[in-house]
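INFO  loader      accepted 1 record
INFO  loader      residues=130
INFO  predictor   begin
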Amino acid sequence: MLYRCNAKLPDDVRENGAAALVGIIAERPFRDWNYGVLSNLVLTLFEVSEKESNIILRASVGYCLYKILSIYPGGHVFESHHADPISTDKMKAGLEKTGYAKGTGCSAYFISLAERLEQWVKESMDEEKP
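INFO  predictor   done
INFO  writer      dumping tokens
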């Protein structure tokens, strides 16, 4: 497990930590990321979206994660020494089922982060075109 929710930490500390991870991803073009490092960040955000005790934070991270996953091809599998392999399809299906994929229950701050991620995905995909 990459993420261990520590309920003793205040909500704002956990929220700022998750927001920092999302912001770090958006600051570097996809092509510049080390695959293993980015995979671990994605898996960590996935765990937050499933296990975080604060429902608003869980939904907010799930919404951002859904945006990040759009850059990967369908069927892509994330593997890590710290977590079981999981496909983008399975992650997306879970986020769609909860409503997180549409931003349901998401905080305003994370909505702005998700907009940055949409731009990140668009720019990264534009770079791939000849």
